[in-house]
């Protein structure tokens, strides 16, 4: 039996819709894999009652099929489903890394990304790499059709998860089908700024690059109190705030010494609009780890 810890992730980061992602130091899923004649899945942990154990309906079942690696798979969920923190991606990433090692398939971490994305498609309906890439490889990742680029960045982050459910499918339905040229120009500028900030470990540049006037405003309507929480986090010292993935988690970049104040401000503001929330004081972390 092999055990793999795969981290939660934050995708999009405002200006990098379906392209940018970061691995978070916490929370994480832990997946155990053991050789077997057929695929079987057992799920425990946070939100496990909502996750099907049928291999045809579970993200790790698709990964095992893609790797031709039948196994007994135990998933201990640390990342809440429908959180905007790459819950299904963490399970898929862990399974891909574990089964690749268990059956000695010989794939590199980058080669495992599209395999894990097949599992993501079971949940979201589309195979996107923006969550599975950082969960497998760690750091800040740029996922395109040509592959994945990774940057080992060091940026303090605060992730605030409200007690709201936003499904990936619902969040994708509200995404505008087109954007004005001026919005495109703005987005390119912000994405370039964020990427530069990651290379420089500069929270100010990363925060500025989290701006977005196309996707985030549409998704913000699905999160009660989002604008108030964003303003409160910025007032408390955050350098930038946006929706993590499909939401409802709100992610903020900041200086290391400001994480506690930013997290407290975000929770307090969610509470002010009648929504309970929890906060993760975290940072950009490593990818899936075998132990």
From TrEMBL:
SUPFAM superfamilies for the chain: GHMP Kinase, C-terminal domain, Ribosomal protein S5 domain 2-like
EC number: 2.7.1.39
Recorded GO CC terms: cytoplasm
Stored InterPro entries: GHMP_kinase_C_dom, GHMP_kinase_C_sf, GHMP_kinase_N_dom, Homoserine_kinase, Ribosomal_Su5_D2-typ_SF, Ribsml_uS5_D2-typ_fold_subgr
Catalysed reactions, semicolon-separated: L-homoserine + ATP = O-phospho-L-homoserine + ADP + H(+)
Record-listed ATP binding positions: 80-90
Domain GHMP kinase N-terminal residue range list: 60-139
Keyword annotations from UniProtKB, A to Z: Amino-acid biosynthesis, ATP-binding, Cytoplasm, Kinase, Nucleotide-binding, Threonine biosynthesis, Transferase
Keyword Nucleotide-binding: yes
GO molecular function, one term: ATP binding
Location of the protein in the cell: Cytoplasm
Pathway(s): Amino-acid biosynthesis; L-threonine biosynthesis; L-threonine from L-aspartate: step 4/5
One record GO biological process: threonine biosynthetic process
Domain (GHMP kinase C-terminal): residue spans on this chain: 198-269
Pfam families named among the record's database cross-references: GHMP_kinases_C, GHMP_kinases_N
Cytoplasm listed as a keyword: yes
HAMAP family hit by this protein: Homoser_kinase
Main function: Catalyzes the ATP-dependent phosphorylation of L-homoserine to L-homoserine phosphate.
Family in the record: Belongs to the GHMP kinase family. Homoserine kinase subfamily.
Protein's name in the database: Homoserine kinase
Upper classification of the organism: Archaea, Methanobacteriati, Methanobacteriota, Stenosarchaea group, Halobacteria
């Amino acid at each position: 039996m092999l055990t793999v810890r795969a981290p939660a992730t934050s995708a999009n980061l405002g200006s990098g819709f379906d392209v940018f992602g970061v691995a978070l130091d916490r929370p994480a899923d832990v997946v155990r894999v053991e050789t077997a004649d057929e695929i079987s899945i057992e799920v425990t942990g946070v939100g496990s009652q909502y996750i099907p154990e049928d291999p045809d309906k579970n993200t790790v079942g698709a990964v095992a099929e893609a790797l031709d690696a039948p196994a007994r798979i135990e998933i201990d969920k640390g990342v809440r489903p429908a959180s905007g923190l790459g819950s299904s991606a963490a399970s898929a990433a862990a399974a891909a890394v574990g089964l690749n090692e268990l059956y000695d398939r010989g794939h590199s971490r980058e080669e495992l990304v599209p395999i894990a994305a097949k599992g993501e498609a079971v949940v979201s309906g589309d195979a996107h790499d923006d969550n599975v890439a950082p969960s497998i490889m760690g750091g800040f990742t740029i996922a395109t059709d040509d592959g994945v680029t990774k940057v080992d960045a060091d940026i303090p982050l605060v992730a605030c998860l409200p007690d709201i459910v936003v499904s990936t499918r619902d969040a994708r339905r509200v995404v505008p089908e087109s954007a004005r040229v001026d919005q495109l120009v703005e987005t390119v500028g912000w994405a370039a700024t964020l990427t530069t900030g990651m290379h420089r470990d500069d929270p100010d540049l990363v925060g500025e690059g989290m701006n977005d006037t196309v996707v985030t405003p549409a998704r913000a309507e699905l999160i009660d109190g989002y604008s108030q929480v964003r303003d409160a986090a910025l007032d408390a010292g955050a350098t930038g705030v946006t929706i993590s993935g499909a939401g409802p988690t709100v992610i903020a970049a900041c200086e290391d010494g400001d994480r506690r104040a930013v997290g407290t401000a975000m929770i307090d503001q969610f509470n002010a609009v009648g929504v309970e929330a929890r906060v993760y004081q975290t940072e950009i972390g490593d990818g899936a780890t075998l132990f």
